[in-house]
Amino acid sequence: MNQPTLYYDGSCGMCRREIEHLRPRLQPHVRLVDISTPAFEPPDGYTLGAMMERLHFHDGARMRIGLPASLGYWRIAGGGFRWLAAALSLPGLFQCGNWAYDRWAAWRMRHQRCEVPR
Asked: What average pLDDT does the segment 29-57 reach?
């Protein structure tokens, strides 16, 4: 598992839109795995339920979960995403961003949706 791998929920409209937007920047460097497909098998030590609750990104060395996962693949995507990852990595901003991510993830699981209006 040396190639960076992003595990995302393709059944989530917001997740799907973000990945489709970033696919051209990520795909040469990151393997994209839709965990909502029936054939998906979680990596050893992880469950589908846990992976559905929060975004998972294996950076080639370790698994990042939640906001750290987003920061990891945003750095690879580059451009404005690299700047956003740098800003959200700052002390204080990271804690606020992580708190917001955790609240959103809990809301998403409770309501079983995450659609974004067009």
From this structure: 95
Per the structure, how many domains does the chain have? 1
Cα 13 to chain centroid distance, Å, stands at: 13
Tell me, letter by letter, the H, E, C secondary structure of 30-94: CEEEECCCCCCCCCCCCCHHHHHHCCEEECCCCEEECHHHHHHHHHHHCCHHHHHHHHHCCCCHH
The amino acid present at 105, given as its one-letter code, is A
**Cα–Cα distance between 19 and 94 in angstroms, integer?**
22
Q: Structural domain of residue 80, as residue ranges?
A: 5-111
In eight-state DSSP terms, residue 2 is -
What is the value of pTM for the model shown? Answer: 0.89
In a domain, 106, yes or no: yes
Which of the 8 DSSP states describes residue 25? H
